[in-house]
Amino acid sequence: MKKIFIAIALSSLASAVCAQQTLKPEEMIKFRKAGYSFMAWNMGKIKANLEGTYNKEQVIAAANVIAATANSGMGALYGAGTDKDAAGQKTRVKAAFFKEPDKVKELAVAFNKEANELQKVAATGDAAAVKTQFGKTGESCKACHEKYRED
Amino acid sequence: MKKIFIAIALSSLASAVCAQQTLKPEEMIKFRKAGYSFMAWNMGKIKANLEGTYNKEQVIAAANVIAATANSGMGALYGAGTDKDAAGQKTRVKAAFFKEPDKVKELAVAFNKEANELQKVAATGDAAAVKTQFGKTGESCKACHEKYRED
Exposure string (b/e) for B93-113, b if CB count within 10 Å is 16 or more? Predict the structure, then answer.
């Protein structure tokens, strides 16, 4: 199992992270859940803008959070001991996540691509284009959730 | 009390948020805690870079998260019913936070300024300048924590 964690840590998923920080498993789980949760709020804001009055600045701000989070090297938050609940921090990650680093990397790269594109499209203020790209970004979130997250 | 919440919602703290999203108090608390928690991870990464080997790209990525979060309109997450624990979501916010909107706004604006400056300085790759600005940013976090967050 240790090898698999190292493989994930060394993958491009975690390329921005240099392992200088020593975190406990429960801290890694807490931080990654925080990242996904805060992205969910920002995705929700974009959705509300697309369904209601469109505010360009709010959509830009939300897309900036999503892109910055996608590029933050969250792969480092899937270290040893984070494959199960740790010290009261619950995780819904499936065991398969740690056994399929190539597939995880593929999904992570796809999500990053869509999130970065969403940031670019949001900056234009073109609501129709944002709607399309928002859909693609949501699909890339869902692809990982369906494969590696318990309901 | 309602008037105070409205005052906060209308302040520039929440200027980027257009209240199209309807969130329950426990959702607002969850999302705001997620935002602060994810920022803490990213502040920790910058600290580790300043104390260990400096990786410009990692610091840029972390500073981008902090700035994007600061600019995301988190004031909207302090709506009615979020001044105390809600449906299992604990909050450490002090009652004074909701009684002093002008002071809260002042601290929020100060934090945003430092976070945006940190993002700019990180982009230069000048570790010494980042160290100085990281200190200022941390102080602006602390100023609010000391006044409005329970230990």
Answer: beeebbebbeebbebbeebbe
